[in-house]
Amino acid sequence: MIAPPRRRLVGLLFVAPFAVVMVTFLVVPLAYSLWLSLHRTTLVQGEYFSGLENYVRAFTDPEFLTGVRRVALFGLVQIPVMLGLALAGALVLDVVASRLARAFRLTLFMPYAVPAVIGTLMWGFLYSPGFGVVRGVDLFTDNWIMLALGNIVTWQWTGYNMIVLYAALQGLPREVYEAAAVDGAGQWRVAWRVKVPMIGSALVLTTVFAIIGTLQFFTEVQTLRPIASKAISSGFTPNLYAYNMAFQYSEFEYSAAISFALGAVVFVGSYVFLFLTRRKGGPM
Fold first, then answer.
1. What's the pLDDT at 46?
2. Which of these ranges, 42-51, 59-68, 118-127, has the smallest mean pLDDT?
3. Distance (Å, rounded) from C-alpha 7 to C-alpha 4?
4. Which of 125, 153, 257, 259 could form a disulfide with 37 if both were Cys (CB 3.0 to 4.6 A apart)?
5. Residue pLDDT, tens place only, 137-179
6. Residue 15 shares a structural domain with residue 110
7. pLDDT tens by residue, 193-242
8. Do 202 and 79 share a structural domain?
9. What DSSP element (H or E) covers 212?
10. Same-domain check for residues 75 and 136
11. Ramachandran region of residue 128, left (φ > 0), alpha (ψ -120 to 50) or beta?
12. pLDDT value, residue 242
């Protein structure tokens, strides 16, 4: 038997590699970014402590606020569509047990395995008005760009969320289904009245992750921007705006403040959703 003090030391040694990596690549960069966000650099004064000046500028910046509203409206449409498709697929897979179901599950999950940049480039070629599959419609315009981006995100993440919901369905007790069938409930009523309420925690989890991912929208818009520059501006999304402020205009302090301001928006949005779901249906 290992003595308690030595056992704690062994445990710390196992945790140490992860702690070093986390501090080096997460805690230190975040601390440095926070320090940057509280400073400003000008030609006259040089670098000086500005307090919350960058944050006041961020929350009064029309381009930043427009980007936040844009991704919020995008999420209000795209998230229900994506999770609705994922839930429908999970319910179908839970009923059908065959080799075809396994192939269907693997096929829907495959887009998640494709890197976002490669998937966006692939869809960019398909969207091309010259030789793409959609002829006569330029999807790289203000009227269509949100639909084009929504299709890419839905294609990429529906399968992932379907697997999460399907795993939750697999953990439900089958006796509940049998009792509902004895009471005369059909497949549709069992799915809607029994299965969906019982996987409420998984639905809340996937929705929270979808909200966070939507507010951090970056890879797809950055990849499509060179071929859709008229529709995708430098501040199209908050993350894209922060990126361009840092690497195009060299305003690193303001970019750091935008990033932390966006983090605050993500936290508030996720908390509000969790609060509303708990208030409506009780703790999940």
1. 79
2. 42-51
3. 5
4. 257
5. 888 888 899 999 999 999 999 999 999 999 998 888 878 777 7
6. no
7. 888 888 989 999 999 999 999 988 999 999 999 988 889 998 999 999 99
8. yes
9. helix 200-215
10. yes
11. beta
12. 94
Both 14 and 110 in one domain: the answer is: no
**One-letter amino acid identity for 114?**
V
Q: What is the CATH number of the domain that holds 139?
A: 1.10.3720.10
- Please state the domain count of the chain: 2
Please tell me whether residues 146 and 26 are part of one structural domain.
Answer: no
Residue 223 structural domain: 61-281
Query: What pLDDT is stored for residue 4 in this prediction?
Result: 66
Closest residue by Cα to residue 238 from 30, 56, 65: 65
Which residues contact residue 181 at a Cβ distance below 8 angstroms, ignoring those fewer than 6 apart? Answer: 190
> Could you tell me if 68 and 37 lie in one domain?
no
Token pair 């945790």 is found at 15
Calpha distance 156→152 (Å, rounded): 6
Least-confidence region, from 38-42, 207-211, 277-281: 277-281
262 lies in the same domain as 236: yes
pTM of the complete model: 0.86
Contact 89, 108 (CB under 8 A): yes
43 and 65 share one domain: no
Q: Give the integer Cα–Cα distance in Å for 87 and 95.
A: 13
Q: What is the largest CA-CA distance in the chain?
A: 80
Q: Which two tokens stand for residue 171?
A: 């953990």
Cα-flanking dihedrals φ and ψ of residue 27, to 5°? -65, -50
Residue at which a domain ends, from 53, 74, 89? 53
Higher pLDDT: 97 or 189? It is 189
